[in-house]
């Protein structure tokens, strides 16, 4: 493909600063040149795409993705879906994510042991469309932990691997690394849906079990992420160096101090969306107000939002997205999380988009040099062209028709199209 | 308890003939004496119950019962109920059907291996209320048969036992006999509910049926079969399977075979669930379109016609069957009596004869147990109905219409007065 | 149901003090008003129940209950009962004990993994009658612990779960928590009945107790221990095990430890079964010689002394325990109240306080549930006794002496007249 030159675009570069009028040249799979204001880039030998003043931004990065979750409404239902069907649905989900501008994802758990690994490999081969992907294990849990769907008289599976004791956890982690995961998931706290035996404020792993998993992971250069709502589970996640601490709802001041000291070592995804929809939009699946009350969803949301703002103010990196892939919070609606960050937590649209792009790109490179998440010379060309201004109205990201162009690694997933609203042809020149 | 003398009652004795006015004396657990018309029985210290013209009749007999089924909507849902909870639910179901005048049941399948057996034993001990019960095995199916709920990657239990080949059948039937069943159930044909084995399919091989039957008969046990497809009905007749359930698609040749062997078999079409699936399943996602797409309308029509043909040939067809599902729950069993009248065209008298006299014979089999008729010497399983069920067979659908329920000479529901005042005397002229 | 006004009753309120004449009004499921003297509570719209001088008191609370045990004479006989039948038997036992005024029970072990849990849920649903119920696991034992009935050549079950090593304890306790238990039971010491693991041995290792306790505490589940030996009692205190059962051989040091932690523990000696084995088990081939050879006389004597010593130090001891065996069957639980008086030396008032007020507190734990006293605002679990139990504690052993049994404001047994016409309580109070 010839070099692609996007002209007359309003560039949001991922840093969170105001967008600037400019031009962007993509060569191969990288951003070759970015021009600001009146300066122009050579037009010869390139394909020129007149953006008509549209919003050019880095591709969105989801650091708490469940691409292989199956939009189910119950635990046992996940297990009942055989691996073949699950693989096909996972492929659809990957495409749906990319259709919605998610060009990279860090998985926070697979639905079955090899699902993420297989999906990542297939995407990487180019045979199917989907975001760049860090493949994760299923949720590792202990017996009786959240999502242990077994009954004494009947076996069931959900999206977990169950282990007890350090030796079993060690073996399971080694096995998953052999299969090719990038990241190991530890479901340390309980969860709202599994009251009273595995409630969200309880720690369902013993410390020697966490130590066992992390020892193997660290010795093999594999990352870790944790399901950690309760304070104690967050504390343990910090202690053992778990890179992605998900939810982190009930962090005490002491835990926040600890996290602040190590703020370059962790990322936090609260993943409110599934809680919000469970509260308001899930009655069709039997989630009644009584159940929501018992499960403490309202409290989870309220405390979670406050905690995220506190964390942000302390410089701890909070990121949007998470837990899309359940019946009442399905794939394809991930970008509602951006709206939640604005409306429920109180972040600005600019902050939110920065978290979803620049910080996401850094997280994806964890510890290394980030190569995407910004519109910056030399960075990988994961780019979106949006019809409208998401900084003014972040909900426009929820309609995939508003993506005029989706590019991943310098190739079009969605080739550019004209803006629908033709009146805005020129971005104001004075920038 | 003192002898109980029911006076001033209209007696439907189970034979199917018109009811007659009279009196009935119960002593211990048996019917001691019956008097017709104006004749009176000596009161000798008996407790007199004035029926006010109510109908006295034998208790109802359900020969296709599933007391261990838990009114679930899917196979998986039934399997997920653990054995302890299932036992308690079966106990509650036994009382429910008993409250509706069903004083005896032949099970057509348990949900789990021991549930029926334990329920029967507990009822027999007198510790809990319920009908006389013939306990059945769960449905025996072959791999891939109807209700095989397993997946390649995941085992599931539903309400079945899976067996393949004559040896496995032999062993598993022996095991169930050791545990104490009365009836061995084989699910020989498919079913419209199951995509991979529709109702015309035959899912057993001949040697598997032979193996199961040989063990059962050698131990004095009877069998029942789920048999919709024609070939499967023929197999039942060939192998001497007593209860042939559904039997919709019997060809003329099959009807000839069955007629020749009519003393050896009973047929329960279980029409209620077909009706309910067509019209009353939408709350559970089973709407009319689904039902028609799965040929339930045809099944109902053919089943009704076949049942009438069988009756005319002297084959013993009976109501009830397959109550115990979400859209056809326990407690609504007596709608089947209405279905027999409205959907098939039997008279109320014929229907009630099937549900009492024939049911009693079917229950007893070769055992010297006499139930199902109001007849001297018979066991006292009796109902007193507030009205004339031959005029209105829907009476049985409301528990309040049962003025008295007696089993084995003991009250499950002690006699109450009739609700409409003024109907105090039965018309004397018979 | 209309409010129920019990008038003309002698109120034993659970506090251990002398009863006083008065009136009690129940509204809904709670005690609305309690007054001294008579005729002071308003009568409009209430159903008046004239107690005729009978004793109104809180329902009895059994904190060492085994509703799932099947009145069997041997371990293996218990294991031989299949789960379906066991569920039905447990259901009947629940009604039997409620018929004897036991309105709440904390289980000290189930017979099979789910039996207690299922029973509790069925009682809570209202479908079967029974006491408020805290469901326990079966007894966790280690291989070779008391009640491991297996043989090398033959498998047996009894009423236990066998685990060895901290990881197995961890996994199996987690599994039981998933299934929904309220109490985790560990059989830490041996027992006089078990030749290979007598009562002065400790059969579960420290790291195994620690593993079980850690899981339970992290999930807000309490524990109970079978702990006859001194070391096992100390281990129970060290690991925060709430119910320390038997606790027979507590040394002075152990008593000191327990006294320091007296707000955290309850002790049920369960003397009844020892007494019955010594004197009433010969029909099952367990005669007095056998009992003496297994030191049960010593167990009883030392146990009684230890309980009195504990009580004097403010440690909460309570009656009941281990009814549900062939020679100590369900339905005879209230003999334990008599044993507390005649064998240990407690007064009837002390004994009944333990069985009501202390029992109620023990049942509730940290949950905001109030019963065990006749006190305004408390849940209406009440008994009306035909006579004065403080004068004759054996009253509770005959069902006919229960004129009324109420649980959660509903009648399990509706009020009936006293059998002898003693119409007025003595006015001088």
Overview of this structure, please?
The complex is a heterotrimer of chains A (about 425), B (about 425) and C (about 425). By secondary structure, chain A is an alpha/beta fold. Chain A folds into 2 domains: about 5-60 and about 370-415, Urease, subunit C, domain 1, CATH 2.30.40; about 60-365, Metal-dependent hydrolases (TIM Barrel, Alpha-Beta Barrel), CATH 3.20.20.140. In chain A, about 30% of the residues lie in helices and about 20% in strands. In chain A, strands 1, 2, 3, 4, 5, 16, 17 and 18 form an 8-stranded mixed beta sheet that branches. In chain A, α3 (about 115-125) links the parallel β7 (about 100-105) and β8. The two termini of chain A are about 30 Å apart. With about 425 residues, chain B is α/β, with parallel strands linked by helices. Chain B folds into 2 domains: about 5-60 and about 370-415, Urease, subunit C, domain 1 (Roll); about 60-150 and about 170-185 and about 210-335, Metal-dependent hydrolases (TIM Barrel), CATH 3.20.20. In chain B, the strands form 4 sheets. In chain B, strands 1, 2, 3, 4, 5, 15, 16 and 17 form an 8-stranded mixed beta sheet that branches. In chain B, strands 11-12-13-14 form a 4-stranded parallel beta sheet. In chain B, strands 6-7-8 form a 3-stranded parallel beta sheet. In chain B, a hairpin with an 8-residue loop joins β1 and β2. The two termini of chain B are about 30 Å apart. Chain C is of the alpha/beta class and about 425 residues long. Chain C is built from 12 helices and 17 strands. Chain C has helices spanning about 75-80, 85-100, 115-125, 165-180, 205-220, 230-240, 250-260, 270-280, 290-295, 295-310, 335-345, 350-365; strands at about 5-10, 20-25, 30-35, 45-50, 55-60, 60-65, 100-105, 130-135, 135-140, 160, 185, 220-225, 245, 265-270, 380-385, 400-405, 410-415. The radius of gyration of chain C is 21 Å and the shape is globular. Chain C starts with a strand and ends in a 16-residue tail after the last strand. At the A-B interface, α1 of A face α1 of B.
